[in-house]
Amino acid sequence: MNEDRLLPPDDALRLTLHNEVHARPPARIRLPAVIVNVAVLNAGISGADEHAHLRRLPGQQALPEEALAANFLRLRCGDFSLKWERHAEFTRYAVVQPLPADAEPGAQTLDALPLRVAPEWLARIPGRTFAAIKLVMIERALTFAPSALAEAQAWFGAHAVVASTMGGHSLVVTDFQLRGTGFEHLVVLAEPGTPETRAGRICQRLLELETYRLMALRGLPAAKSLGGTLAEVEATLAAITARLQAHAASEAELLDDLISTAARVEHATAEHQYRFSATQAYHAIVETRLAELHEGKVAGTQTLGEFMQRRLSPAIATVSATAQRLASLSQRISRASALLRTRVDIATEAQNQQLLAQLGDGQRTQLRMQATVEGLSLAAITYYVVSLLLYFFKALKAEGWLPVAPELAAGAAIPFVLAGVWWTTRRIHRRFFSH
Fold this sequence. Notes:
This is DUF3422 domain-containing protein. By secondary structure, the protein is an alpha+beta fold. It has 10 helices and 9 strands.
């Protein structure tokens, strides 16, 4: 520990977050140069697989494992350099080599250009290719733009091209065509004396622009495939809502249909939500990279941004609309569920009211029966008490202590016994209900 340190201990992420601004710096490229960029999807490909492949490069057999920990590495392999970048969904390999002095502009020149990295090594890169670009960067004066454009266009033959000036110091030309070799071609003419760092930044922006454009478009097939499913779900939900309004089905049937529809929507959301969110994120990066190019128009051609956004914008709009339809369907299903729940609650409340009314009628009947039973009970108790008194009076008569007949005495006692039993019963009732 540094004894002179005047700060509290560092947060565990401080160094990582601070160095993020220096991650994946652009290369220093000396013109003229050729950059071969290959981007592959790395789903199912581990970092160890890519590390093993990097060690197959000339002189890299002893490449240490810790050198690959940052998911970024730049290697010098003789007369070419290679940059490796591993991202969340894809990995990029960029080979930078000098442009041969005898390379003449032509439509087949880049296809036939010998690569310093072994073709077998490129072909065995682990993953599935989704972007491959050959970028030529040469020095030319741009004082007369039409002649510069004509020279750059010679690399593409008769294909129509799009072109942009970048910050007034360079010209980029491409035709966005995928060759039989699997590569796209870009040509950049930069002013003589362009610094190597600026050339590296230009190269990085252009390669990232095309890579992220293709990644952004990966959400389009998923959005198109969902169109029919979403239309069916919308029609089903409309039918359920109509049946709910018309009371044309029981709550159980409506609930089953609603659960089935909700399951389809949630399955589609779980399957495609990440792809749609990634599309928005990649599109935002594309727009940032386009802004960083500081494009200027070249007479007679579209700019890269105009050509790219002509097809990219509708695709992104389609993905956004599909994501919104999914979210809207989820909300509509939630509202329909709330309506059905309200209907079930109302029906349940009505049933409870009927049940309470039936219970009230039963209780009233029970009370009437109880009053009847209590009246009979008073008569029975009085009968038994009077019977006991009759025996008592007979005993008194036998001893000569009763001047009248026992039956007469028992009959005279009946009203008093009845009153006593009634008074005792009422007193018990009052004490019971007071508690």
